[in-house]
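re: ur question from yesterday

yeah so i grabbed the chain u mentioned. its 180 aa long if i counted rite. heres the sequnce exactly as i have it in my notes:
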Amino acid sequence: YHPSRNPGFFLYESLAGLLSVIGGPALTNAFSLAAALAAAWALLDICAHFRIRNAGLLAVCLLVNPYVATAATTTMDYMPATACCLLATSMLLRGKIRWAGFLAGLAIGFRITSVLIIGAGGFCWAIRGARRRAIFEVTAICGAVAFLLYLPPFFSEGLHMFHGNANLFVENNGQVKVST
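ran it thru and got these structure tokens back, copy pasting raw so excuse formatting
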């Protein structure tokens, strides 16, 4: 495995590659659209849990947002990551702790920056009085899934997987260099 960009997105790149072989761009774009629809469903489920009125309007607003509409109709990793974040939240609210952890780990596997959303959501859940055992279980499953999904880029690139596309690195004398 050689990542298309650092830190590597093994889960998405493998899945998109497989879908591309099977059905070309139409199938990879259909996957993004399915992820957007899953995100909208999860948002509706979250709204139902909190008894939010006009949830359907919120779901429509999500889908017609220009960023979401673009990501939902192109082969990009944003929608699967967003869908997994929202689905993890939905599962957490339903008390399906293991599924929540698994989906949160997938979200991070699809896009590493999802850790910010997952972390913030987990913090909010914890301060609302979640049981320690449940917090540990979600965190352990999420961490294990994400860890496993980033092993291929690590084996391929080592710690260079964290250097980004601009090839930012620190020399032995402590100076930061950027090469493009």
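noticed a couple things. The mean pLDDT is 89. also Helices lie at 10-49, 55-64, 66-72, 78-93, 97-110, 114-127, 132-149, 151-157.
anyway ttyl
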